[in-house]
Design brief:
The protein is α+β, with helices and mostly antiparallel strands. It has helices at about 10-25, 35-45, 45-60, 90-95, 115-120, 160-165, 165-170, 190-195, and strands at about 65, 70-75, 80, 100-110, 125-135, 140-150, 180-190, 205-215, 215-225, 230-235. It has a 6-stranded antiparallel β-sheet with strand order 4-5-6-9-8-7. The chain has a two-stranded antiparallel sheet with strand order 1-2. A hairpin with a 2-residue loop joins strand 5 (about 125-135) and strand 6. The chain is elongated. The protein starts with 9 loop residues before the first helix and ends with a strand.
């Protein structure tokens, strides 16, 4: 039951209990989750508390509200063990889900100091800038930005990316991503990015930066913000 004497907010305790049921598989993807009234009766909490707990689960991507029908489980977070080179699309497929992307922006820009430094090119050099929302089974997972020098790939079109992953498009052009280095941060995202990810302003996100190589050539700099607790990484130490 809920510990009302605990310093931990009641809504948070309730949210954690429901999240635990989802991650343990007791509430499965597609199941209707308890209504606010049901939660009030089950846990002896106020309707405001029940609503906030459900709101937090929606924000973190564990449940989805369908108007007139109720709230339904979207599933637990995607877990990835860091060992070998991977792509987002392939990892989602391994979990039995369907990956998809929504292209927010695709254009050629001049590299600023930040981008040129991460790509090892000159400031002002032309790069493809690709901004995408990444999904799994139509569940919003991350906001993704990729920067690829025109000297690596001279042409990149929306039509190509609508039907293939970025790495597949590059591979089809003879530019095969083979390895990468990644960096992990916790960062407050901008108001605009928070809006795209349906997150609260001022909320922290897991940021993953990546430099991708074809043989010894640096072909892409990418950074990605994950929504809520949608995705987790683990490392096996030997």
């Amino acid at each position: 039951m809920i510990d009302k004497m605990s310093p931990i907010p009641i809504y948070f305790q309730l949210k954690e209990k429901l999240q635990g049921l989802i991650e343990a598989g007791e509430l499965k993807k597609g199941d209707r989750i308890y209504s606010e009234n049901e939660l009030c009766e089950m846990y002896d909490v106020s309707r405001i508390t029940a609503k906030r707990a459900l709101d937090e689960l929606v924000k973190d991507g564990y449940i989805n509200r369908l108007p007139g029908r109720g709230s339904f489980v979207q599933g637990s977070k995607i877990e990835h063990q860091l060992s070998n080179f991977y792509s987002f699309s392939e990892e989602v497929k391994k979990k039995g889900m369907v990956p998809s992307s929504v292209i927010v922006k695709l254009e050629v820009i001049e590299a600023d100091e930040f981008i040129s430094g991460n790509l090892g090119i000159k400031k002002g050099d032309k790069v493809h800038y690709l901004k995408r929302l990444r999904k799994a089974d139509d569940r919003l997972i991350a906001l993704d930005r990729s920067f690829i020098p025109l000297t690596v790939c001279s042409r990149l079109t929306k039509e190509e990316l609508d039907n293939n992953s970025l790495y597949q498009v590059l591979t089809n052009k003879g530019i095969v991503p083979e390895r990468a280095t990644e960096y992990f941060y916790a960062e407050i995202i901008s108001d605009r990015d928070a809006e795209l990810l349906n997150m609260k302003r001022g909320q922290a996100s897991l940021k993953v930066g990546r430099k991708t190589y074809c043989q010894e050539r640096l072909i892409e700099y990418n950074y990605r913000y994950y929504k809520g607790q949608q995705y987790s990484y683990s490392v096996e130490l030997k």
